[in-house]
Amino acid sequence: MDAQGILDLSRWIAEAGLRGVPETDLIGGFCERLVAAGVPLTRTVVGADTLHPTIAGHVVTWDSSGRNAAEVRRTEY
Questions:
Q1: Dihedral sign for Cα atoms in the order 21, 76, 55, 43
Q2: Which of the chain's termini has less CB crowding within 10 Å, N or C?
Q3: How many domains does the chain have?
Q4: Which residues lie below 8 Å from residue 48, measured CB to CB, with a gap of 6+?
Q5: Residue ranges making up the domain that contains 54
């Protein structure tokens, strides 16, 4: 990926995030753009803890098999 590709990807993810694109679509779109740019990516896992009283955190997974990104929530402590 060249410098222009990195700039385009950075711009896309910033604009998509500001538009409120759901996390699964954001991660999926990011990964698909990396693959299209020649990055040998086959799967991704992104996790985040939260300070929510009933949701401890969540994970978004993506793989290159053509399935969409999926969100996994952990709700019980």
A1: negative
A2: C
A3: 1
A4: 57, 58, 59
A5: 3-74
